[in-house]
């Protein structure tokens, strides 16, 4: 059994008031009394970069340490035990 959606026509506006048209006509005020009170939220220590910067403490140090360890492992910790062409344990193992 399939349900079909019922599409209804938009309801008529009885008052004649259109909130979207009202908001478009109002626009932004020329002199916003709250602009100065809201400005501090986006300046100084509250800028977008400063808020994002503290989100991952230690990520930079951890990335550098991990990269250094990967380099150390690649250069100095060669494992000659595995990967022989004869595949498996050779005669050097007893």
From TrEMBL:
Q: Does the keyword Cell division apply?
A: no
User: Which Pfam family, just one, is annotated for this protein?
Assistant: NDUF_B12
Q: Which family does it belong to?
A: Belongs to the complex I NDUFB3 subunit family.
| Location within or outside the cell | Mitochondrion inner membrane
- Source organism of this protein record: Lachnellula hyalina
What topology does it adopt in the membrane?
Single-pass membrane protein
GO BP field: electron transport chain; mitochondrial respiratory chain complex I assembly
Q: What is this protein called?
A: NADH-ubiquinone oxidoreductase B12 subunit
Keywords carried by this UniProt record: Electron transport, Membrane, Mitochondrion, Mitochondrion inner membrane, Respiratory chain, Transmembrane, Transmembrane helix, Transport
Q: A Gene Ontology CC term for this entry?
A: mitochondrial inner membrane
- Coiled-coil regions listed: none
This chain's function reads: Accessory subunit of the mitochondrial membrane respiratory chain NADH dehydrogenase (Complex I), that is believed not to be involved in catalysis. Complex I functions in the transfer of electrons from NADH to the respiratory chain. The immediate electron acceptor for the enzyme is believed to be ubiquinone.
Q: What is its main location?
A: mitochondrion
């Amino acid at each position: 059994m399939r349900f079909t959606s019922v599409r209804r026509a938009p309801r008529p506006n009885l008052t004649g008031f259109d909130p979207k048209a009202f908001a478009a006509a109002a626009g932004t005020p020329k002199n916003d009394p709250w602009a100065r009170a809201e400005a501090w939220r986006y300046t100084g220590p509250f800028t977008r970069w400063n808020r994002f910067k503290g989100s991952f403490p230690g990520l930079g140090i951890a990335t550098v340490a991990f990269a250094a360890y990967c380099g150390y492992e690649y250069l100095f910790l060669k494992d000659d035990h595995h990967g022989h062409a004869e595949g498996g344990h050779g005669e050097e193992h007893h």
